[in-house]
Write a structure and sequence with these properties.
This protein is α+β, with helices and mostly antiparallel strands and 142 residues long. It has helices at 11-19, 42-51, 110-117, 129-134; strands at residues 69-73, 76-80, 87-94, 100-107. A hairpin with a 2-residue loop joins strand 1 (69-73) and strand 2. The longest helix is centred in the first third of the chain and has 10 residues, at 42-51.
Length: 142
């Protein structure tokens, strides 16, 4: 939220921008949320690739991680560790036969991101629909 404006469902677009090294972009949105499209970041990767990415000479400033930081709660954990590259390690374990245990470990480059992560889709379970709808996170299909 900024200046009283709240934009929802930004996670796929922001993930694409960051992972493709785009840090200077102007995006016009005429609604309360970024279009979910197919539920993945792939359409944004394709649109940006088609449009082209321009490199600027201006020196970039980066946030440097100097020590490990971990946040845990409700059986979930996320950590960020000092590293000279953008290295990602993820593990999920859902007690559901369609998901189960999945893991990935990779150095994130624009190419690896486009091939391995961008096609991943948001998912949910049917038993969560009413709660998500009541929280305003999804809308009923017409």
């Amino acid at each position: 939220m900024r200046q009283g404006v709240l934009i929802s469902t930004t996670e796929h677009l922001l993930s694409v921008l960051y992972s493709m090294g785009i840090d200077n972009v102007f995006i016009e949105i005429d609604n309360l949320e970024v279009p979910i499209l197919d539920g993945s970041g792939q359409p944004f990767v394709e649109l940006l690739t088609d449009a082209g990415i321009r490199q600027y000479r201006r020196r970039r400033r980066y946030l440097r991680i100097l020590r490990p930081v971990t946040v845990e709660g409700n059986g979930k954990r996320i950590s960020i560790l000092p590293c000279d590259a953008f290295r990602l390690t993820c593990d999920i374990d859902f007690p559901h036969p369609m998901v189960g245990h999945q893991s990935i470990e990779m150095d994130v480059t624009p190419e690896h991101y486009a091939d391995e992560i961008a096609p991943a889709r948001t998912f949910g379970f049917e038993y969560e629909l009413d709660q998500m709808r009541n929280m305003g996170l999804i809308r009923a299909l017409r």
